[in-house]
Amino acid sequence: MDMNYRKKFKKRYMVLSGFIVIIFICLTLRLYYLQIYSYDELSSKAINQRGEEISLDPKRGIIFDRNRVPLTNNEIVQIAIVEKSYVESNTELFNELRNNTLLSVEEFYKLIDSKERLLKIPLKDDNLLKKHKNNLFIVNTIHRYDKNNLLSHVIGYTNRSDNTGQAGIEKIYDEYLRKNDQNSFIVEYDRSRSLILDGDYYVNQNIDSYEPSGVKLTIDYRIQSVIEEIMDEKEVDGAVIVTEADSGEILGMASRPNYDQEKVEKSHSSKNMAFYNKAIGVGYPPGSVFKVVVLLAALEEEPDILDNNYFCKGYEEVNGNKPTKCSGQHGWISIEEGFAVSCNSVFIQIAKQIGGKKIIDTAKKVGFGDKINIGLLEEKEGNLPNKEEVKGAEIGNIAIGQGALDVTPLQISNLMSIIVNKGIKKPISLVKGITNKDGYMIKDIILDEEEQIISKESAKYAQDLLGSVVTKGTAKSIDLQDIGGAGGKTGSAEAVLNGKSVVHGWFSGFFPFDNPEYTISVLIEDSNLGSRDATPIFEEIVKEIYYLNR
Question: Which of 100, 158, 288, 498 has fewest C-beta within 10 Å?
Fold first, then answer.
């Protein structure tokens, strides 16, 4: 009995000891969780009960360029945190804040008149407020968008009330971008609800570095900056796209006029189409740039006609329709010469020979009339006439890129990419993938397979003719021979803009000529001629990119 009793006692003792150890471990873990792991969060909640939490960042993940340069969350702005009652009672401080804030006068007075007890005022320079440092806080905050609104039409914008993406990348990848570090500044009040100026508290809640919380684009920050600076200097409206020839990745995409991502409401009331991404979301008649498609259709379907010469009498008639004028009276002219000088007569005659069906089939093959699908909801298909619509007199309009034909600058860039890639259609892309908070890839975007859609011979012939446009044709004003030369096509398209008849200017091309590294498409709204307005912008962008890489 004694032996059994000892065994039972020992067993109970072991069970009780184990139970006590488990309780001790649980208490230790609980204390660790409360005092170390959740210290910032619990301290924040405790202090927040007797104070106010001020967010220091947008609480959204970063959108990066191809080199992990932040395109968002990259502008630091100092703010003054001060009680409104103190500002209203101190004339000197009131005037200093009014004269030193980044807010407009209207916005400043609206803030003063608001029901906010604690004011957060963005500053130009905090040095002017040093004498008031004992009566206010000055902290650094991070703005979602920089003051230049770089790449605004691609990035999009958010709804401030619920922090959700409303357009562009912000909307498409909202589920990832809403998961981000949360940095806050907490101010405390005393029992009389006055601000405690010697009591401040920073809170940083970091997310796991393996959690997807950012997006990496194919955009090159440097090239994007160059494009936008040039468009702003020239004061033009329209769009520019730069792609890397070998990969099809978009390095730069700009649309003008621009809009303010921090003041979306004001831009919404504007009638200048500032919210439209004109690179992908607006269709335009391509004008003579479409002659590239007519050329490819002829090369692929009836290459023998390339040996013909054509007579240009300065205009061309189609089935008794109103004569279509040419840029000159060229007389007998070859296809090579006609392409270089953009002779309407030559391409109307070619179109009549090969027929509208083959031209439309070729246009579909190179991506017209359908989305390129770069991952933005704003992208449009444009408009490609059906085969019945290009019978009769309408063939004359289609031959020179007019009539019921609308394309986006992105579709024109895709066309140029196919030519410089020897007839291979490579997927044009904008997004590389999902990243962690530091911009390192977590998930790649899967792209479509490459496809040979135009013969190598046709693509090479077209590339040579695009070179002749620059050396001796409508774009001969371009001077890039010292840095490798270029090729491309000008276009001037009649259209209606805001109720009036205008001419849009095009130039789409590539450089260097022999081994193209980049394709660049330029559309200028309400211009004179593509050769006069679009080509100088192409040339300037080429030179800036060339020197960026040297």
Answer: 498
